[in-house]
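Hi F.,

I've been meaning to write this up properly since the lab meeting, where we talked about keeping a consistent format for the predictions we share between groups. The idea is simple: the sequence comes first, exactly as it goes in, then the structure tokens exactly as they come out, then a line or two of notes. No screenshots and no reformatting. I'm using this chain as the first example so we have something concrete to point to.
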Amino acid sequence: MTIRLPGPAGALRTYEPRTEPLAVTPGTPFTSRTVFSAAHVVADPFADVSPDSPAAVDWDLTLAFRRHLWSHGLGVAEAMDTAQRGMGLDWAGAAELIRRSAAEAKAVGGLIACGVGTDQLTGPAPLAEVRAAYEEQLALVEESGAQAILMASRALAAAASGPEDYLEVYGHLLRQASEPVILHWLGPMFDPALEGYWGSSDLDAATDTFLEVIAAHPDKVDGIKVSLLEARREIDIRRRLPQGVRCYTGDDFNYPELIAGDEQGFSHALLGIFDPLGPLAAEAVQVLDTGDRKGFRELLDPTVELSRHLFQAPTRFYKTGVVFLAWLADHQPHFTMVGGLQSARSLPHLAKAYELADGLGLFPDPKLAEERMKTLLSVYGVNQ
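Output, unedited:
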């Protein structure tokens, strides 16, 4: 069987889908790396909402997808940008997601860390209100029993006048955190409102401020997540961290080499691309646990083309491809997103994502994925 797919120029081309999925072994706890997948939320397709309405989430399917990730040994990074924080999921929805996912993690013994931000602020706010918003979210995450991830804040980026404001706000939060947290530096390619984070658009100066925050509170920082899509910068930061502070790569362009590491260290992982790659990523880390870096790279390197495709500019819309692949893999019965973001990528982009994912064997039922791809194509007027 073949399928006709549209290319970038609009012309149709013939593709022959694979017939068998990639064979993976059941998940087991990892020993060499701590690995989180930032997980997407499943929208309720029958809710009568508009793009401006509060998110309507299908809680049963959303939690089922988290159980899928945990079953393969992956941790869940909850209520992050992959879950459409700031792009359809408001604070009320994120708070409910955190409560439900943390309870589910406790029930099944899954690893979970949850995003702490300031998205209850809907407009410009002074630093005191930014700090209070962070405190409210930190308290909720800690009360849920999850680890906290201090996310980059649009409100702080807008309110801060320089590096000293970041030092003050983060220092205050770290002093009151009951357990070590993960600090998250999300670059402007993921969210343009975060341009100039840490008080400077000069990444060298921003890095110095970031490291100053960590150096002042190393006992309160479990690790950092760096999402700048620059492998060399992440390696430089990783080598400058205090003893015992981990680096969790958030680089969806260069993750295999960063996780594999070099003679001076390695990165753990907290990645959006591990949402669609879950079973394959887990298989690769299990190989790495045996000390086989070559085997790890042989499994994970071929996935980079798909990841770079999903995360191509404008990068913040990578979530559309993630949910699209979840539909094709039958983790949800529809391709509907919070805020209507299923329309944020073109048909040729989605067709290429299907082809790359199918080539990797990511679909448990390749025939079903093909049928669903053909259904989508027919909506756009592409007859097979």
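Notes:
The longest helix spans residues 91-108.
Residues 78 and 114 are 5 Å apart (CA to CA).

If this format works for you, I'll send the rest the same way.

G.
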